[in-house]
User: Fold this.
Amino acid sequence: MPAPLPLEGITVVSVEQAVSAPFATRQLADLGARVIKVERPDGGDFARAYDTAAHGLASHFVWANRGKESLALDLKDPRGLDALHALLDGADVFVQNLAQGAAARLGLDAATLCARHPRLVAVDVSGYGAEGPYAHKRAYDMLVQCEAGLVSVTGTPESPVKAGIPAADIAAAMYAFSGVLAALLRRATTGRGGPVEVSMLDSLAEWMGHPLHHTVHGGEQPPRTGLAHAVIVPYDAYATADGDRVLLSVQNDREWRRLAREVLGRPELAEDPAYATNAARTRGREATDAVVARALGRLGADEAVERLEAAGIACARLNSVAQLAAHPQLEARGRWRTVDSPVGPLRALLPPVVLPGGEEPRMGAVPALGEHTDALLRSLGMSGARIEALRRDGVIA
Assistant:
């Protein structure tokens, strides 16, 4: 029999919106946790309305919210807050990423909840942390990318650009996810839960480790180099004869010698002092890139990749998102599944964590707003008449 999913039996309650907290709790759901997503009755998580690209549903929401139960509950109404606390009486984890100060006003900050529920792991996800001059500053992904300096090292020499994915949100989500796992492990040995704090800025600042250390200790910020690497040459994308682009990476001088002899057809460059070391190639970046570009520009993409791989040179195609969706490696490894949703089955990738010998990750349905409200409230002992009264008053949906 396959081993059960590692978070089987864990209940997570989350007051969440946008990406950072929802993506964190989706990881928990994939690994077997029961995740109850608490949303506003008047529209729910605002990420539901970002777009309609996923057959009428928002692509962000579909990605970050499968496998959850949706409870539409007005937490500003005392009756709604009481219902939430009743859920927390039986929960293992609570996650929230409300605007700074909002959770504390409701008594839902991690410190308050952990005092009331000693075994609860309570996670506060914020933009900039609970203290400091930025604590109450609005924090959206692109804004934090700018504050963290990511945008300053991304793009071309002429133009900085943001990352094409919500990097700050994803960074915070993954640290919240790992923080929950660590806190649950600690609870298993101590019997107590405790607060977990994650900020988007702290998370992305950690991801900025290379340029940060390069600047702090070396005195200079790495330059923006587009697809090229700031300190390794050649490491860039080069046009091929058929209009595609192939990226190659030479990580050491042994690889450069193989590239020169077996791909570029220029064996004399293997030992030429102007090219023989990475330091020399970096100083002469334009000349090095020109040599590589001329050689690959005479080849089609397939032949270029074939020659590079035969020479043991790391390489990749510059794929579009559509090409990723059809990637032969994902297909060969059976990484695609379908998940249910209010608009029917949708394609989704298996999560990256693979547990050989265990059950496959639980990729549950994407919930409609308030889809599980009645069932959850009934499980708390509420009568049908009381549930209908709450609905009439707009406390639930």
Q: What stands out?
A: The chain has a mean pLDDT of 96. The CA atoms of residues 204 and 242 lie 38 Å apart. The first helix runs from residue 20 to 30. The radius of gyration is 25 Å.
